[in-house]
Amino acid sequence: MTRRWWMCVVVALAAPVVQAQTAPVAATQEFNSAGDVEDASPIAPSPPPALPAESPSAPPFDDAVWASGHWFWDGGEWRFNPGTWIAQMPGYQFVNGYWQQEGSIWRWVSGGWARPGSLQVEFPIAVTREELSATQAPPQLRAETPPPPPAPNLTWAPGYWYWSGANWVWVEGSWVEPPRPGLAYVSPKWIRRGPTWVFASGGWAVPGSFHVSVPLYRHSGIAVRWGHPNYFLHSWDRYRVVRHDYWHRRGPGRWNDGRWNDGRWHDGRRYDGPRYDGPRHHDAGPVRHHRGGRHH
Known about the structure:
The protein is mostly beta strands. The chain contains 2 helices and 27 strands.
């Protein structure tokens, strides 16, 4: 790291300026341990570039919500994480994340699920278009014996194979906690389509549905190169917004970008009203909806 970088981190002043990173619409392999997860959110030494235009495909299923793409800082340069479709969480609207200026640095404010008419994200999530395929079938699943659950109301998430681009890597099973009651866990799986195998990531969904509203990226710690669909997740693997699948006992409340709280904290700063009050790359408001290919 250069001296200029450290000065940027130290000199963080008040008077925030916001730069939205979405046209907000609702519509050897290495693994890090849970102890490596940082509660702090990603920061960057410079403002993100202007957002490229995105043309969402047709919704892949009913009630699909479009989560816009955003720039992410990769230690030395800006890279773009394309938008994708996710399943609607009943009773919530999706709010896209953005980069907010704090003095000489820029800090990522995570997007996720918020109550209708509110910008207070209760369930921050990282969303990525993980279009992963392999030309060979995954190995047979390993037999696992789950250890006793460390607490009630946890769900066992079985292990699965993941393709790194060079070889198959086993992701061990673990106990996970639902972000809220009433959601069911959907395990990742590989689906055969002609001569290829396509990866379907897992996470939390409405019972009876296989469409994920809150994705879990238990494979984010697998080291991959730029160009692999897992690259964004691996680049931000140390941050809680990506690694929120690990169970932590901290009493009642909700996860909010690494902090357990009563739902009124977003990314470590209390939000008593909209903070989209600075320059943006897009004219759209922070909570425009985009469902089923319609704008309204």
